[in-house]
Design a protein that fits this description.
Shape of chain B: globular
Largest sheet of chain B: 7 strands, mixed
Number of helices of chain B: 0
Order of helices and strands of chain B: EEEEEEEEEEE
Helix content of chain A: under 10%
Largest interface: A-B, 25 and 23 residues
Radius of gyration of chain B: 14 Å
Strand content of chain B: over 45%
Oligomer: heterodimer
Order of helices and strands of chain A: EEEEEEEEE
Strand content of chain A: over 45%
Shape of chain A: globular
Number of helices of chain A: 0
């Protein structure tokens, strides 16, 4: 079955840029999306179709996807961005989530 | 306003059956897929199953095939996830979410989650 691999944790200083990767076989041939989940809350869609932001999502969140890796980039990271982040793609009409990355802002 | 409202928390014993629900409103219920996602305590998101209310087309994750049943009642814009015999390992938060497509789509709206606790 298809797998998406994320680093378990990423740390970033406030105001700096955080990058979270998501790797999968030929992932660049698929659309990838990203979700943010804060403790005790439902996931929120951050990025869809590799790089599109839903309305209401700050511009500091951006995405890219090429080759075997999709990347979520958070520019000017804020304390409120501390959360778990998940990538997701579809393979043969099955949804696949990455294992999640805990972003720590310190 | 698009909303997915899930049924309340459940506490069950092993071997019992359960059906949880997800009611959609604020959009055309039959034109979006509704999926279910499991999150075990302290763990990540796992996709379980998905259904298209328009024609009842259904897909299951291989990991959950035969373990749960997804269904929908179009007349009341509600999707369901059910178990015939719960196990302690089914203890988790369950989310429903909608997507416009199961090839290139994204889950743009999520329910608030239903916590299921299975304990003797």
């Amino acid at each position: 079955s298809y797998e998406l691999t994320q680093p378990p944790s990423v740390s970033v200083s406030p105001g700096q840029t955080a990058s979270i990767t998501c790797s999968g076989d030929k992932l660049g041939d698929k659309y990838t999306c990203w979700y943010q989940q804060k403790p005790g809350q439902s996931p929120v869609l951050l990025i869809f179709q590799d790089s599109q932001r839903p309305s209401g999502i700050p511009e500091r969140f951006s995405g890219s996807n090429s080759g075997n890796t999709a990347t979520l980039t958070i520019s000017g990271t804020q304390a409120m961005d501390e959360a778990d982040y998940y990538c997701q793609a579809w393979d043969s009409r099955n949804a696949v989530f990455g294992g999640g990355t805990k972003l720590t802002v310190l | 306003e698009v909303q997915l409202v899930q049924s309340g928390a459940e506490v069950k014993k092993p071997g019992e059956s359960l059906k949880i629900s997800c009611k959609g409103s604020g959009y055309s219920f039959t034109t979006y897929w509704i999926g279910w996602v499991r999150q075990m305590p302290g763990k990540g998101l796992e996709w379980m199953a998905i259904i298209y209310p328009g024609d009842f087309d259904t897909r299951y994750s291989p990991s959950f095939q035969g373990q749960v049943t997804i269904s929908v009642d179009k007349s009341i814009s509600t999707a369901y996830l059910q178990w015939s015999s719960l196990k302690a390992s089914d203890t988790a938060m369950y989310y429903c979410a909608r997507t416009p497509s199961i090839t290139s789509g994204y889950f743009d709206y999520w329910g608030q989650g239903t916590l299921v606790t299975v304990s003797s």
